[in-house]
Design a protein that fits this description.
heterodimer; A: alpha+beta; 4-stranded mixed sheet; 2 helices; 35% helix; B: alpha+beta; 3-stranded antiparallel sheet; 3 strands; elongated
């Protein structure tokens, strides 16, 4: 599966449009990380625990999107976008979406 | 002066000094991070990164893949404290600008590092996204932001 955020895949031609695919996940941070992060919050800087959590979650959202595309019989997803929003205190929603297409290499 | 008074005085000193101590530690860490960013940026100066969906002139793509760089960054206690007062008069909140700038640079560098470690020749169509995450009730004043930088890595 080719996943890109450009409107077409460089070096390939879009032959079929399969439609919008999306994947999301809502994650809550666990209490250990929360305590660690609030201590870290005192001196500022990167909150490694949160970075890891979001990286992991975003990968999961992408995997869900890729699964949907596979079910549609696509071999690529173009124009991928990400959004993040906070749904409640301590929980974040990671959402990714794109257009599933069938591509073939330009000869 | 009895021992109770001495303890009270020490406690008061601690309450006043602690935010400044945290601020000094935060400042030192920030400077170290900015130096690190400058050093890493210099090593990637010749690597083409653009936010248009076009390949650099003369480049033929054999493959492409999305690459991401992300970071969650927070400001220190002292800056949060002073930023509250800045909100009364308005104007640029310099300490927060610097925090967000650190986040943007770090996310961008992580994306470039991922692309280069996979052997990419360029990154095109780069996008930045910033969001505020998980502000619990207790941490109302804590500035914390998540920065995501993503683009399409090009392999030749």
């Amino acid at each position: 599966m080719i996943v890109v955020n450009t409107e077409s895949v460089p070096g390939y031609r879009v032959t079929q449009l399969k439609g919008l695919v999306q994947g999301n996940t809502i994650r809550a941070k666990h209490i250990g990380r929360d305590i660690g992060a609030s201590l870290k919050n005192l001196v500022g800087g990167e909150l490694t625990g949160y970075t890891e959590l979001l990286t992991e979650s975003r990968r999961q959202a992408m995997e869900r999107m890729i699964q949907q595309a596979q079910q549609l019989g696509a071999n690529a997803i173009v124009n991928v976008r990400f959004t993040t929003s906070s749904v409640a205190a301590g929980a974040a929603e990671l959402y990714s979406y794109g257009t599933a297409v069938v591509v073939e290499p330009v000869a | 002066m009895n021992s109770g008074d001495a303890f009270g005085l020490l406690f008061a000193l601690f309450v006043i000094a602690a935010p400044f101590a945290l601020g000094i530690i935060g400042k030192a860490r920030e400077n170290r991070h900015l130096e690190d960013i400058a050093r890493r940026s210099a090593t990637h100066r010749d690597f083409p990164v653009v936010d248009i969906p076009l390949l650099p002139a003369g480049m033929q793509a054999r493959g492409s893949e999305i690459v991401l760089g992300q970071v969650v960054i927070a400001s220190d206690y002292l800056k949060n404290f002073f930023a509250q007062y800045r909100a009364i008069f308005g104007g640029e909140v310099k300490s927060f600008s610097r925090m967000v700038e650190r986040g943007k640079e770090e996310a961008r560098l992580r994306m470039i590092e991922e692309a280069r470690s996979k052997g990419a020749a360029a990154v095109i169509n780069v996008r930045f996204e910033t969001s505020q995450i998980g502000a619990s009730q207790g941490q109302r004043g804590q500035a914390m932001s998540e920065v995501l930088c993503y683009g399409t890595a090009i392999y030749v």
